[in-house]
Amino acid sequence: MMAFEERIYLVGATGNIGKPLVQKLLVNPKVALTLYTRKTSKVQEIFGAEHPEGKVTIVEGDYDNQKPFADSIAGHRRLFLLAQPPNFTDYQTIPRRFAETAYGAGVEQIVIISSTGAPLPWRVNLYGMASRQFEEAVLNIPNRKALVTLRPGFFMTNQLWGDLFTIKGANKIVDMREEDQTRPWISPKDIGELAANVLQDPIEKHGDAVYELVGDPRTPLEQAESLSRVLGKTITYEKLDEEQTYQMFTQQAGMSHLTAILRMQLTELSRHQKSTIGLSVLLGRDPQTLEQWIEENKAAFL
Fold first, then answer.
1. What is the DSSP secondary structure assignment for residue 211, as one 8-state letter?
2. Which contacts of 254-261 are long-range, i.e. CB under 8 A and separated by 24 or more positions?
3. What is the mean pLDDT of the chain?
4. Measured distance CA(93)–CA(97) in Å, rounded
5. Whole-Å CA distances, 185 to 39, 205, 275
6. Extents of the domains making up the chain
7. % the chain with pLDDT above 90
8. How high is the pLDDT of residue 88?
9. 146 and 109 in contact (C-beta within 8 Å)?
10. 131-145 burial: b if 16+ Cβ within 10 Å, else e
11. In this model, does residue 237 exceed pLDDT 90?
12. Fewer Cβ within 10 Å of end Cβ, the chain: N or C?
């Protein structure tokens, strides 16, 4: 068995953020990983089943029964925590239980995924409130160790479930944004790789840092232009009014009233004009642009 210098525990590392995170950590011969998942088969499907002995450990568990996590966290110095509870009311309790257990077992650094909604004014909407409560729940743990908070903006992958259908069906994207209103796009690849960098840096380097992650703010017209260039056909932008947007979310996408209103509010509240200062430093490269992401995922839109 190889001798590893660092053992990193990952909760929520099988999605769009987790895949680039784990892939970057896997190439470090000094790091061993423990992945907490509902299904072992899912981890093996994404990352393969053949790794050096001791390199990857898989623990099956979930949010409700965290005993498998509690039984396996000892011996790890770092924890990556991406919690997506089913209800907004759980954004305090579920992450805090993971974090309290981890710190109590000797974990010295936790990296959490929050959102750009966390610093919004108090109770301005449910999403911002949940993000803030999530951060505060972990931040306020007595005698805790380091806590690094990542606050990503609007995931570029969201285009695959929202814009995809109107692009394929009508060669257009639709939204309620003004033509010159930016959206704070960020590539999940950038989020995952930045998290991997933090988890491999000296713990004291980042301390209790908070990093906003906005990679490439773009207006809907700029998004349509990028789609047109990459796909080789004209994609237009259609601005919807509030009633049309609400109907689209509830009747076509099947969202609840609260979720639909929340999405509409976020459209107005997300007005980042510039990419995050220092993001290229944290990544060690330039952040991925919206057009680069579209190029990588071109096949999905054709």
1. E
2. 258/126
3. 94
4. 6
5. 30, 27, 9
6. 6-155+186-215+272-285
7. 82
8. 76
9. yes
10. bbbbbebbeebeebb
11. yes
12. N
Is pLDDT larger for residue 211 or for residue 3?
Answer: 211
Residue carrying structure tokens 């071109």 = 298
pLDDT at 180: 93
pLDDT tens by residue, 191-234: 999 999 999 999 999 999 999 999 999 999 999 999 999 999 99
pLDDT for residue 227: 99
Q: What is the pLDDT of residues 239-270, one digit of tens each?
A: 999 999 999 999 988 999 998 998 898 887 66
Q: How far is CA 145 from CA 78, 89, 94, 120, 125, in A?
A: 10, 25, 19, 26, 30
Considering the entire predicted model, what is its pTM?
Answer: 0.94
Where helices occur in 141-289 by DSSP H, the ranges are: 163-170, 188-200, 203-206, 220-231, 242-247, 257-269, 279-283
CATH class of 6-155+186-215+272-285: alpha beta
Task: Name residue, tokens 């929340």.
Answer: 262
Return the bridge partners of 58, or none. 35
Residues 112 and 81: beta-carbon distance below 8 Å: yes
Q: What strands lie across the sheet with 6-11, from one edge to the other?
A: 56-60, 31-37, 6-11, 78-81, 109-113, 146-152, 210-213
Strand partners, 150: 113, 211
